[in-house]
């Protein structure tokens, strides 16, 4: 029997295909981290940990016949999951009447998983020791001006890119915003006839994103080339069969993912002013 226990389920191959299509398409519409992070994998469900290197500290250390690697640690790849149920009576009605099975519960569950993935990418999980892009120590910080005024947003973002260049961090720069800031930039820049977001997007070669998991007034810019960071995927998003309870069928959508930050100076966070 496979890890996902599909062989033991009474579902048809066609229904599994429809579930997979629903789950993947729904998640794809929600996920933001995967739009700018390099994917390392999928490595398979059997890969439970990977090395995470801090490239600014990485070196082999030799001492009294023992060699170790400084700046490297092995980290467990956590699993993200969410469960849903399909009612037996609904499946039987669909079969008898010949109309498609309503997979709304699968779609909601896939959306929940996608949001959990992005939350782990941006905020990590302090309880279990995982750092996120916004919570990692040692990142760059810039005090954010009022982006609703003048050229403040463009100026702050240009300053962040300049800071990256001063630190020798070159590559693809991506700006990620909370929805309130993203829509705040959908305004005509005075004297230009151009939307502020268009000027910023052009500066970043179109790599501007917003995520609904971000708290209000949150903005960060990253250099997401794989030498600086990547997203490790063990098991990519998949649906497993759990059990049949009270005749109904329970499923689990799951994945194993880990954000690897290899150089924290490749992250710049725009902090709110205390004024």
Fold and architecture overview:
With 275 residues, this protein is an alpha+beta fold. It folds into two domains: 160 residues, Major capsid protein gp5 fold, CATH 3.30.2400; 94 residues, hypothetical protein PF0899 domain (hypothetical protein PF0899 fold, 2-Layer Sandwich). It has seven helices and 16 strands. α1 packs across α4. The protein is flat and about 65 Å long. The chain starts with 12 loop residues before the first helix and ends with a strand. The model has no long low-confidence stretch (mean pLDDT 93).
Task: Summarize the SSE layout with pairings.
Blueprint: H1 13-30, H2 33-36, E1 39-40, E2 49-53, E3 59-63, E4 66-70, E5 72-76, E6 79-86, H3 88-97, H4 104-123, E7 140-143, H5 152-166, E8 173-177, H6 179-184, E9 188-189, E10 194-195, H7 196-203, E11 208-210, E12 219-223, E13 229-233, E14 238-245, E15 248-261, E16 267-271
Parallel strand pairs: 1-13, 7-16, 8-11
Antiparallel strand pairs: 2-5, 3-4, 6-15, 8-12, 9-10, 12-16, 13-15, 14-15
Helix pairs in contact: 1-4, 5-7
Quick structural summary:
By secondary structure, this protein is α+β, with helices and mostly antiparallel strands. 29% of the residues lie in helices and 30% in strands. The longest helix is centred in the middle third of the chain and has 20 residues, at 104-123.
């Amino acid at each position: 029997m496979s890890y996902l226990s599909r062989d033991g389920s009474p579902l048809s191959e066609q229904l599994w295909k429809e579930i997979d299509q629903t789950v993947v398409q729904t998640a794809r519409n929600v996920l933001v981290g995967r739009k700018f992070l390099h994917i390392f994998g999928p490595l398979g469900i059997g890969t439970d940990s990977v090395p995470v290197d801090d490239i600014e500290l990485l070196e082999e250390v030799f001492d009294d016949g023992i060699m170790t690697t400084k700046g490297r640690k092995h980290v467990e790849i956590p699993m993200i999951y969410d469960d849903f149920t399909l009612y037996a009576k609904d499946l039987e009605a669909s079969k008898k009447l010949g109309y498609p099975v309503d997979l709304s519960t699968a779609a909601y569950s896939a959306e929940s998983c996608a949001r959990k993935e992005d939350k782990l990418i941006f905020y990590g999980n302090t309880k279990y020791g995982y750092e996120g892009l916004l919570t990692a120590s040692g990142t760059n910080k810039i005090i954010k001006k009022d982006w609703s005024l003048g050229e403040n947003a463009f100026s702050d973002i240009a300053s962040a890119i300049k800071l990256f260049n001063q630190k020798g961090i070159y590559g693809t720069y991506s700006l990620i915003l909370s929805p309130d800031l993203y829509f705040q930039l959908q305004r005509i820049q005075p004297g230009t006839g151009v939307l502020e977001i268009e000027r910023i997007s052009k500066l970043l070669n179109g790599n501007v994103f917003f995520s609904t998991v971000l708290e209000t007034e949150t903005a960060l810019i990253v250099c997401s080339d794989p030498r600086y960071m990547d997203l490790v995927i063990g098991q990519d998003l998949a649906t497993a069969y759990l059990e049949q309870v009270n005749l109904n069928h329970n499923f689990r959508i799951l994945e194993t993912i880990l954000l690897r930050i290899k150089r924290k100076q490749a992250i710049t966070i725009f902090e709110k002013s205390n004024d």
